[in-house]
Design goal:
Aspartate Aminotransferase, domain 1, 7-stranded mixed sheet
Length: 383
């Protein structure tokens, strides 16, 4: 049996997205900037895709800026805000500990340039609101916080973060990385008063190489964001480069279909998560249980068995899981997300992440539990 339990790293493309990609690539291949019929067709596909993505996140108005990845969208939000106005140089930017590297590394670069970066603790999977309120000042120009932690599955209280940020720091924009939240949790940027939102196609059964940054119209009107990629002036001048029309159309199709299925799929996935956690409770492992959890992520701490060793064992049995974030699993640094949660460096090295999708089954869960038990027994005995 082949079991794919690494859906937070990437997902297989769903049939509807594949068909849409092939259709647009074959029949509507024009450059959307070209002033002829094929260009007009491609331009309309882009416009409809923007409307579709906006509808899935509760946006009425605003701009969907298509990028090549969620990483690029995060970089655009962070650098674009920091460099938007000369008076923002050295301003305060607030984030959380344990953010994805596509947020933490741009902020580290800005910190070297003299920006005041404040990182809010998230111990136990809880965003420290007291520390956050204390950090907010009139000089704060950006708050950038993920909605769902990609390694622990912790869900942060974006509504409360938004309320405090806009109340205490009038110039602050709220940027939310919703890469792991899209189509796992309901998202309404208007209700949450989010200013910028990052999403990614390949996390929701769309193609790789496509992401988007939704930007509130007021940010655009006030020139509150600068482009970081210059050239042809595509995407409203905020992201130059010929758009990946077929990939964008497939992303939009995957999003609209998944959005219609969201309540059903979220329930199915969370039920399977709970089933796996119940089975794991009888085993010699620890499970991270933040107070508010996304339906699809389970982080397991093994008993003195390195994660890579267990990954190799499971992979040899046809099971795909990961050790923390796929984007950082090829490095040798302790996970910042697990450290911020309160996991020791040693236990972090024993951590594996199971991430589920609508396609996973109880039979697959049983097979995973069986092989994990075998791995625990044989690897501990060898050790």
């Amino acid at each position: 049996m082949k079991v794919y339990f690494d859906n937070s790293a990437t997902t297989p493309m769903r049939k509807e997205a594949l068909l849409r990609y092939a259709e647009v690539a074959a029949e509507h291949f024009g450059n959307p900037s070209s002033l002829h019929a094929l260009g007009d067709e491609a331009s309309e596909i882009l416009a409809q895709s923007r409307r579709d993505i906006s509808g899935c996140i509760g946006a009425v108005g605003g701009n969907v800026i298509f990028t090549a990845s969620g990483t690029e969208a995060n970089n655009l939000a962070i650098f674009g805000r920091a460099y938007a106005k000369e008076r923002y140089k050295g301003a305060r930017i607030i984030t959380s500990e344990g953010e994805h590297s596509s947020v933490s590394e741009p902020l580290a670069m800005l910190e070297k340039q003299g920006y005041d970066i404040v990182r809010i603790p998230t111990r136990g999977g809880v965003f420290d609101m007291d520390a956050f309120v204390s950090a907010l000042t009139p000089k704060t120009v950006l708050v950038t916080v993920m909605m769902v932690n990609n390694e622990t599955g912790a869900v942060y209280d974006i509504a409360k973060i938004s309320r405090e940020a806009h109340l205490r720091s009038p110039e602050a924009l709220l940027h939310v990385d919703a890469t792991q939240a899209l189509m796992k949790l309901p998202i309404n940027v208007r209700a949450l008063k989010i200013d910028m939102l990052t999403v990614s196609s390949h996390k929701i059964e769309g193609p790789k190489g496509v992401g988007a940054l939704w930007i509130d119209q007021n940010v655009v009107k006030t020139r509150g964001l600068s482009p970081i990629t210059l050239g042809g002036g595509q995407e409203g001048g905020l992201r130059s480069g010929t758009e990946n029309v077929s990939g964008i159309a497939a992303f939009a199709r995957a999003a609209t279909v998944a959005h219609a299925e969201l309540p059903e799929n979220a329930k199915k996935i969370s039920t399977l998560r709970d089933y796996i956690c119940t089975r794991l409770s009888d085993m010699d492992v620890k499970i991270l249980t933040p107070p508010v959890r996304a339906p699809h992520i389970i982080n397991i701490i093994l008993p003195k068995i390195k994660s890579q060793t267990m990954l190799n064992f499971l992979s040899s049995n046809g099971i795909s899981v990961s050790s923390g974030s796929a984007c950082s699993s090829n490095t040798h640094h302790a996970s910042s997300a697990l450290a911020s949660y309160g996991v020791s460096d040693e236990d972090s090295d024993y951590s594996i992440r199971v991430s589920l999708s609508r396609n996973n089954t109880t039979d697959e869960a049983d097979f995973f539990i069986e092989k994990l038990a075998e791995g625990l027994s044989s690897l501990q005995r060898v050790k």
